[in-house]
């Protein structure tokens, strides 16, 4: 899916946020972009998965200056040390709207930093593909590598090769404890689970007498996404008490909306108050199944989402899709570029981890987000 570039316009105060959302997989194809090539690569499977929302998708008029409250200060402090640099990006996937949003922001923000060439490769969630991509970056002599890691352990030997070649590595989204990593730009995935649990607990208290029946569509293949589900259950139990919660089902899905929809359909006869989706494709798959069944009294909450489809569903007061944790792609990209800029400027005090801000989006604050879509 080709994505329009985002234009920097909105004020910092419009964004007090921080949702896939870790990314999920597509096919095994890869794509390349450079400073002169700005069309986002996409796998065949990804095209199929996103086709239904293609006509309605609209990109934000601005994310770059609103993802963090200190954005303007960061721009003023720009050192220019990325000017003329060749940067490579080993992306985990181009599967969903958040992941392609990251791509859009990589392209939209590169000129501000004076980056001479930007090469984005899509691993489509294959560690072997990602390792080959990084090895290619090394042989092509890129100045730095940004990476959203598929497998935090399996990638280490390849990162060692980059280190030996003198190429700095910054991870974004999913990371690794590899010792030479300059920094990991991320969000707190446990906080993602906690925010959704707090929302569900409040909903149950106000609407269900403080008791709730929950269906969970998890994605435990990715360690950082697994943390979301663990934090959700722990926080929910601390707020409502174990005796007031019934987990009707907890099932892993296969990354596709069809898979999430099938899980929901197979459990449709069981009374469920809230379906929790680990990522937005899980949440929207559940929504589709509920719509097809004409279900009543069940809502869906997403632990990670961003973009037109997510915001429109909430703004339109969709019967099922009610809330999501928002994770701005602009924030994760800006922190990544800023970190590389500091590195090349000789900064020795770069934090090993850096978290962007998160906030849950629902009917109470959706107006703050509708400016991001047309």
Automatic annotation (TrEMBL):
GO terms for molecular function: carbohydrate binding. It is found in: Cell envelope. Keywords: Signal. Residues 23-44 have a biased composition (Low complexity). The keyword Signal applies. It holds the Pfam family Peripla_BP_4. It comes from the Bacteria. Residues 88-347 form the Periplasmic binding protein domain. Residues 1-21 form the signal peptide. The keyword tRNA-binding does not apply. GO terms for cellular component: cell envelope. This is D-ribose-binding periplasmic protein. The lineage of its organism: Bacteria, Bacillati, Bacillota, Clostridia, Lachnospirales.
């Amino acid at each position: 899916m080709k994505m329009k570039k985002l234009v920097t316009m909105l004020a910092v105060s419009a964004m007090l946020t921080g949702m896939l959302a870790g990314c999920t997989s597509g096919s095994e194809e890869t794509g390349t972009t450079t400073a002169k090539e700005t069309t986002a690569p996409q796998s065949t499977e990804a095209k199929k998965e996103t086709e239904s929302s293609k006509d309605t998708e609209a990109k934000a008029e601005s994310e770059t200056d609103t993802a963090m409250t200190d954005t303007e200060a960061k721009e003023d402090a720009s050192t220019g040390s990325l000017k003329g640099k060749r940067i490579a990006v080993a992306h985990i996937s181009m599967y969903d709207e958040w992941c392609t949003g990251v791509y859009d922001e990589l392209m939209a923000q590169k000129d501000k930093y004076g980056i001479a060439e930007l090469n984005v490769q899509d691993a489509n969630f294959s560690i072997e593909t990602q390792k080959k991509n990084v090895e290619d970056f090394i042989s092509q002599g890129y100045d730095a590598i940004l990476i959203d890691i598929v497998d935090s352990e399996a990638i280490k030997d390849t990162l060692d090769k980059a280190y030996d070649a003198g190429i700095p590595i910054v991870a974004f989204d999913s990371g690794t404890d590899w010792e030479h990593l300059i920094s990991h730009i991320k969000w707190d995935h446990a906080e993602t689970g906690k925010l959704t649990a707090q929302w569900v607990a409040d909903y149950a208290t106000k609407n269900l007498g403080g008791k709730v029946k929950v269906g969970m569509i998890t994605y435990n293949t990715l360690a950082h996404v697994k943390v979301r589900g663990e934090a959700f259950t722990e926080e929910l139990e601390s707020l409502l008490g174990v005796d007031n919660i019934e987990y009707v089902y907890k099932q892993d899905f296969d990354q596709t909306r069809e898979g999430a929809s099938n899980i929901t359909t197979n459990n449709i006869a069981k009374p469920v108050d809230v379906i929790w989706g680990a990522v937005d494709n899980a949440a929207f798959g559940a929504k589709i199944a509920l719509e097809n069944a004409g279900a009543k009294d069940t809502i869906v909450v997403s632990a990670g989402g961003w973009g037109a489809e997510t915001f429109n569903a909430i703004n339109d007061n969709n019967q099922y899709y009610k809330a999501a944790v928002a994770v701005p792609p602009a924030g994760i990209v800006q922190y990544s570029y800023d970190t590389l800029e500091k590195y090349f400027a000789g900064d020795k005090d770069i934090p090993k981890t850096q978290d962007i801000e998160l906030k849950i989006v629902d009917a109470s604050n959706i107006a703050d987000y509708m400016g991001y879509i047309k």
